[in-house]
Amino acid sequence: MSCIKVDSLSKSYGSIKAVDEITMSVKSGKVFGFLGPNGAGKSTTIKLLTTLIHPSEGSLTILGIDAIKNPLKVRHKIGVVLQQPSYEPTLSVEKSLEKYGMMWNVPKKERKSRMEKLLVDFDLTEFRKKRNEDLSIGQRRRVQVAREFMHDMDLLFLDEPTAGLDPSARRKLLDYLKDRVKTGLTIFFTTHILTEAEYLCDEIAIIDKGKILAIDTPDALKNRFGKEKTIKIHLLENQQEISSLLSGIPDCKIDFNTGTNIIIHSEKSELVLMKVLRILSDNGIKIDDLSAVPTNLEEIFLKMVEENVSNH
Ligand SMILES: Nc1ncnc2c1ncn2[C@@H]1O[C@H](COP(=O)(O)OP(=O)(O)O)[C@@H](O)[C@H]1O
Ligand SMILES: [Mg+2]
Hints:
Elements: E1 2-13, E2 16-27, E3 31-35, H1 42-49, E4 57-62, E5 65-66, H2 71-75, E6 78-81, H3 93-103, H4 108-121, H5 137-148, E7 155-159, H6 167-182, E8 186-191, H7 194-200, E9 203-208, E10 211-216, H8 218-224, E11 229-235, H9 242-246, E12 253-257, E13 261-266, H10 269-282, E14 287-294, H11 297-310
Parallel strand pairs: 3-8, 3-9, 6-7, 7-8
Antiparallel strand pairs: 1-2, 1-4, 4-5, 9-10, 11-13, 11-14, 12-13
C-alpha cells in the first residue's frame, strides 16, 4: 500500500519553482529518502506533504486521505521534525518530552515509560534535568527528534534530522530509525548526505531545483550506471580547447572541464581512454595524473545534479 501519493505537485514562490511537478509514491513500512543539495526543494516538499503549506498545483494523498482537503485529519496521524530548531529554552529535557506526550494525549503512565525509554535510546539520560538552552546543538536536535516518538504515528517526516550530530550520534539515530521501521513505521527522510541515504533508505529520490531527477533503490541506482566508469585526467597545463578536441569520441561524456581537470563518464572506458590519450599526445598535451574507477553512487548524484545545472 502507498502511504504517500503525490501527483504533479508544485510550489512556487514568485518566479521560483521551489517544487516543480513532482510525482512519486511511497510504500508503507519503508524509508523513503529525499536526497538533494541545498536549495533543492527538500524542506518545501516536507512542508507540502505535512500540510504546513499549500501547494500551487497538484494532488496529494497521505495515508489514504486527501491532504489538500483534509489537512487536520492528516496532521493527527503523522509526526514531523522540521529542519529549523524548535525547543522551549527553559524547559528541561524531561519536561520537553513530557509536554509532547501531553499534547498528544498519551496517558500518564505510558508517557512516563516512553520518556524513560527515549532518554536511554537517544543518550539523553545524563542531561535529563538540563534546560534546553544549556544543551549543545546536537543534544537539542536529539531532544527534538526523540520527543516526536512520544506519540504513536504511522508516518514520520524528518527534515535533515542528523544535522549537527557527530558521527556516532548520527549512526545511532539512523539505527534507531531502522529499528522503528521494522515495527511498521514509514519514514520520509531528507538529507544532502548520500552515504546516509544509502545506509537508511529503501528508495531514494534525487531532487534538484525542485525536480525529481531519479527515483530508485540504492542498488538499482548503482546498477543503472554499473558498467560505467569515471575517468579523471589532470593536465599539466590549462587547455581551454580540450572539450572540442575530445568532442568527436563516441560514448564519451565530459562532465566537468576547468581546462586542467577532465572528468569523463563512459561505458566503454578502455576504448575511450585509448582515444583520449592519442588525441592528447597528438596535440602535445601533457598529463599530470590519470585514473579510471567505477562510478559510485556519490558520483551518480553529483553528475545528475551537474547535468541538471547545465540544462538550465
Ligand atoms: N518561504 C519562501 N519564500 C521564498 N522562497 C522560498 C521559501 N521557502 C523556500 N524558498 C526557496 O525555494 C527553494 C527550495 O528551498 P528549500 O525547500 O528550503 O530547499 P532545501 O530544503 O532542499 O535546501 C530555494 O530556492 C529557496 O530559496
Ligand atoms: Mg532544507
